[in-house]
């Protein structure tokens, strides 16, 4: 009997060792693939930069060659005018004591030369090829517009994970007005006449999405423009809904992940721990990215695609709802709604 139990334990130990070996191998595989992908992306951007730098060099060289030729031509014309000017000044100095007839002869002698010189050195004859320059500038601008239309690549990739989401009025605090489309939450100082529901928040100004997710990759964008206070994030359905406890607040427990903004300051919250963010930009739109395979929750400032904070949860133990809190109106300074884009 003892031998059988020992054999069972040894088999269990071997199974765990085998699983650990596979997990370590998978970890190394992911690191290796990520490193190779990172290197490939960097090389592609370096290649693009070299192409653009070379094109810029060629374009500037063409402009410089034309500029050099025009400047040299003008220098020759300036020199020709200078030579004749000095010659006339010499004649004037030498003829100060001459009679009017003699001065007239000198003037007649130079009149034809001056006329020819002025005709030959007309500044309007020397100019850059403006049509070519305009064409070059136009092509450069078209290239810029094309590049801008293609980037940021990361934003296009994230948007490919966009998931439809509608707010659930039955979870909304009675002082929140949820739009008929289910995409907007607005604070009102009037307690709404809404049915009592076990899933409704009764003290915190939260509302959850109808949908919940338990696999895959998902991305949402939330419009927070014109507001000085808001909270948004993801939460398990098990979040507390009733009472004054901080357990009902987003990010103050292990059931939710939250980004909070108040009067210029950002904090990322989870497990009751605040992570102050050294960011002074007031973003108008916040992105939330969730990856179930990696247990990742990432917040981004969509205006400039700035990563704000990432939580690595490991493995999510429940499905996730999108959660929003528009906050009190703060004497009219925070009356704007919070809206899912």
TrEMBL record:
PANTHER family: B-BOX DOMAIN CONTAINING, E3 UBIQUITIN_ISG15 LIGASE TRIM25. It holds the Pfam family PRY. This is B30.2/SPRY domain-containing protein. InterPro entries: B30.2/SPRY, B30.2/SPRY_sf, Butyrophylin_SPRY, ConA-like_dom_sf, E3_ubiq-ligase_TRIM/RNF, PRY, SPRY_dom. It comes from Cyprinus carpio carpio. One of its GO terms (cellular component) is cytoplasm. Residues 145-341 form the B30.2/SPRY domain. Keywords: Metal-binding, Zinc, Zinc-finger. PROSITE patterns: B302_SPRY (PS50188). SMART domains: PRY, SPRY. The keyword Protein biosynthesis does not apply. GO terms for molecular function: zinc ion binding. The keyword Zinc applies.
């Amino acid at each position: 009997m003892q031998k059988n139990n020992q054999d069972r334990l040894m088999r269990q130990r071997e199974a765990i060792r085998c699983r650990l070996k596979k997990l370590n191998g998978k970890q190394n595989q992911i690191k290796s693939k990520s490193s190779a992908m990172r290197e490939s992306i960097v090389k592609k951007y370096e290649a693009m930069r070299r192409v653009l730098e070379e094109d810029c060099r060629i374009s500037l060289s063409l402009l410089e060659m034309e500029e050099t030729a025009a400047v040299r031509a003008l220098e020759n014309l300036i020199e020709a005018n200078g030579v004749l000017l000095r010659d006339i000044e010499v004649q004037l100095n030498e003829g100060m004591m001459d009679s009017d007839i003699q001065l007239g002869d000198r003037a007649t002698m130079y009149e034809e030369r001056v006329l020819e010189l002025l005709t030959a050195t007309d500044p309007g004859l020397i100019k850059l090829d403006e049509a070519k320059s305009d064409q070059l500038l136009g092509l450069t601008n078209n290239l810029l517009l094309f590049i801008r239309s293609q980037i940021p690549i990361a934003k296009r990739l994230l948007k490919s994970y966009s998931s439809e989401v509608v707010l659930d009025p039955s979870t909304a605090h009675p002082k929140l007005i949820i739009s008929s489309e289910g995409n907007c939450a607005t604070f009102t100082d009037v307690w709404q006449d809404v049915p009592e529901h076990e899933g409704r928040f009764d003290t915190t100004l939260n509302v959850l999405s109808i949908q919940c997710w338990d696999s895959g990759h998902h991305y949402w964008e939330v419009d927070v423009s014109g507001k000085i206070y808001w909270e948004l994030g993801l939460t398990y359905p098990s979040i507390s809904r009733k009472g004054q406890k901080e357990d009902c607040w987003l990010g103050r427990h292990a059931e939710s992940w939250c980004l909070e903004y108040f009067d210029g300051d950002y904090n990322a919250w989870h497990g009751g721990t605040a992570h102050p963010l050294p960011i002074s930009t007031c973003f108008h739109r916040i992105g939330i990215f969730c990856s179930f395979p990696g247990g990742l929750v990432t917040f981004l400032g969509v205006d400039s695609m700035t990563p704000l904070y990432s939580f690595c949860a490991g493995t999510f133990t429940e499905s996730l709802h999108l959660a929003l809190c528009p906050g009190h109106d703060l004497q009219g300074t925070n009356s704007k709604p919070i809206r899912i884009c």
